[in-house]
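Interim report, section 4.2 (structural modelling).
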Amino acid sequence: MTILYLAGAISIAAGLFWNRNNAINYGLLWVFLILQWTFTIFAYLHKGETDAIFFKFDALGILLLLALSIIAIPAVIHSRIYIKKHTDATVDTHSTEAEKKHTETPQSRAIYFAALVLLLMGVSAGYLTNHIAVIWIFTEITTLSASALIYHHRNKLALEGTWKYVFICAISITFVFIGILFLSLSALHAGITELSFEKLLEKSAKLDVFWLRLAFLFIFTGFTAKLGLVPMFTAGIDAKDKAPAPAGALFASVIMNLGFVGIFRFYIVVANTPLHHWANLVIGIAAFLSVFVATVYMLKVKNIKRMLAYSGIEHMGLVMLGVAAGGVGYYAAVLHVILHAFVKSSLFFQYTQLYRVFQNKSIYHLGNYFKYNTTGAIVLLLGFISATAMPPSGLFVSEFLIFRSLFEAHQIFILVLILLLLTMIIWSFGKNIFKVIFLPPVDFDDSKVAIISPWESLTQFVLLGLAVYLGLNPPAEFVHLINESIVSLKVMGI
Amino acid sequence: MINVLLITFLITLFYIAIANRMLTFIRVLALQGILLFFVVFIKLTEMSPLNLGLILIETIGFKTLAVPIFLAYILKRNNITRESEPFLPHFISLIITTSIVVITILLSNTINDKHLDKIFFVVALSTIFTGLYFIASRRKIITHVMGYMVIENGVFVLSLAVGNEMPMLVNIGIMLDIFASVLILGIFLNKIGDVFKNIDVDELVGLKDD
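Predicted structure of the assembly:
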């Protein structure tokens, strides 16, 4: 089935790429969504089975695949709206008159949607693979397809963002490969030549510690480019800023989750070796620095899209702190990753409307959003409440559990520091969001404000509502899946 | 024989460190491809045609021909000046490259592992770190791509050092990935050449937080 899915997605992407007709484009996207959901349901029904040698439908993969398939629907809808409406706008205030006249052509639309489908396919397959080298290949595919999305506007800043993203991701992916080579040396000592996560976990006691340590350092560093953690987080920020917001929503949710899968699956192996404590230390340091860096940037950032991107860095820092703390932190980390994907993607989807109203993304020039687009302003407000993890947001539950895990791990000092940093983030986030919603904007001519249909906000309400529902009243099956995905860590009895 | 080839490979790194002209840089990259081919050719114990063909494509076809020709084309098309314009003088570059090699030799002497081919390991690590150093110390964007290629060559040697047979599928995947990333980098580099006046990293400062 996986092979069928990959072949189907690739042929749909090829069809989207060659086709110039609007109706066929629309039809192909629907076919893709149906394929995506068929595959997701198939994976769910065949939980625990191995498919096409390199893929396994395990609990973690299924959970994240479900989240991806849910986010894929609004991503496609908003991309369609984006392409339709943004025919005469470029994203930058710096852009020249010629660039402002940039119009969407059937060709640019074709490239955009082909890349979108390839990206979703790469991420889905990356979630489900049980072989570290195969996840590596799919991560590379996401880099390549993402570069086409970031470069969509074809202007100077988009080019700069794309270049930085591609280059840093290329270096990171090389790091992961170096890590895989070291891992294969380590595995050779355990007498295994095949690098599937299952095999590694099975023989984890015999893995050579020295090479495993090097492997973990390289693989962790490499995947931080996707996860958005110190040290490689910068590329992701530029990418989310320059890509069209519906694509940015995917970068800020499902791609970050791909980085999480890469690190977490390998972490499960390392956690069953004597290196467990050391790995926690490495992750903990990177995670704490990420929250710190996110705070520093959130305090000074003036561009609302970048602010949302930095908020993602903060959340991934918290997730990895949960992983480093262990215990209930594992559960909280997986829960947080899923809920964060819903919340952050809904904020990015809302951003497309915000931009259409103000034609600007500097917080100075945004304001009185409540007056111009009431429904959208409510989404922004609810999104703010969710993203800063205030009750009743679902993230409140997961963040609270992360704090509990830090407390139980006797990391009181870290916990206090993190809470202080989070307070600063909430203050800065709130200051900016309330400015956008209620205070009047600077030099804004409101004689010809775009009218936004309230229906466009529906998807964001659904996503935010889903995050609340899954956080506060998780269905038994959902909890069961999360518990199953961390079962190999529970063995440790932490 | 392998040792001679590998040491020649190390010497090419020193040569890059002091290379003044961009074309020299490209030619050395091509030479590295040839050296790598012979290293693999000698090291290969069983000679299946498929395996040989793959290696031939990867080293000669790709590292020696495709990438250098492509880079030279970019160089010409974008009127990039011939000087490599490093941030540091060549002499210091040479010292740094030498110390990288010395440190990796010292480091690898502390490792005792029967699965590890030491000379390969030293060459691989020094190549990777030298590549990173080239990226950090050069001003032109195209030298970043070349530094990336040097790192890729280092990774190639490292995969030989490990001596563990990777599945064929993975091997092909890697090859395509590297090819695609260089191609994509090249395409964007061309665009950068069209949009910006100088192809220097100093130009890439538009994305800021204020």
